[in-house]
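Hi Y.,

Following your request, here is the sequence exactly as I used it, all 326 residues.
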Amino acid sequence: MSVRDVAERPPGQVFGRVTLVLGKWLVATVVVVFGAATVGFIALQLLPGDPVDWLLGPSMTASPTLRAQVRADFGFDRPVFEQYLSYLSMVAHGDLGRSYQLQQPVATLIADQLRPTVELAVTALLLALVIALVAAVGTAGRRPRLREAVSTAELVLTSAPQFWVGILLLTVFSFQLRLFPVAGAQTPAALVLPAVTLALSIAGVLSQVLREALEAALTQPFVVTARARGLSLAAVRLRHALRHAAAPVLTLTGWMTGTLLGGVVPVEIVFGRPGIGALVLQAVTSRDMPVVMGVILLSAVVFVVISTLVDLLHLALDPRIRTNGD
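Below is the corresponding structure, written out as C-alpha cells. Let me know if you'd prefer a different format.
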C-alpha cells in the first residue's frame, strides 16, 4: 500500500485519530498534573524546618500564640493526609494557593511573569530551528572537512554552560561593542542576546539529529527517482529528504521545548530579565513553596500540551499514522 493510497482514506479515519490523540491528551493531563502535585507535596513535607518559620521569615520573631494562629490559619495543624487531599482539591479547582512571602495568589504571580518567559522561549526555539536547518541542510553529505568543522562547533555549543555563553555574549556585544542592552526587557533589542544564548545549545543538538536523518534519507531510492526526473540536489533535499528527516527532529523539538522552561532560569538571571526564572529563584531562596509547586504544575501542563501538539504534527506529516497508528 502506497503513501498516496493511505492519504486518500476517508476523512472519518483522520478525525478518529485526532480524537484519539486528544483523548490521550486529556488523560495524560490529569495523570501528569496529579503526579506533579503529589511529588511536589511530598517534597514539601520532606523539607527540614517549620513551615511557620518560612511564612514569618528568618528575621521575624513571633510569640507562641501568633505562631499557633498562623499554623491554624494555613492548616499546618491538620493531619498530613488531610492537607494532601485539601491541596489536590485546590489544584482540581484551579487554585494554586497563595505565596507565603508575597501574600498574593500564585496563579496571579505566574501570570504576571509568564509573558517575558514565553517571548524568550518562543524566540529562542524559532532561532534554533533556523540555525539547525541551515547547518544540517548545508552540510549533510557534503565535504567531510566542512561537516566535521560544523559538527565540532555544534558539540562545543551543546556542551558549554548556558550561563557561560550568556556572559561571553554580554562581554562582547554589550560591554565592548555596546550593540545590545546589558539587562532588562524593555526593548526588542534586549531579547536578542538571551534568545541567542538559549538557541545555540538547542540548535547544536537539533542540527546533529537532522543531519543524520537527512543523510539517511538521501540514500533512499526515491532520491534517485527524483534526480532522474531532473530535480536538482538542493530541490531533492528541501522538497523530499527534509520531510522524511523531520519526524525525529519534531519529536526532539517537542521534548526540548518542554525543557525550555527550566533552561530559561539561568539565562533570565544572567541578563536580568523578568520572568518565571526570576520568580522561581526568589521563591526557592525564600522557601516560598506554593510558588515553586505552582511552577512545577505549570511545567507539567506545558510538557503534556507540547507532547500532544507533536503527536498532531506527526499525523499531518505522515499519512500512514492517520490510519495505521504506527
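Residues 233-270 form the longest helix (38 residues).

Thanks again,
Q.
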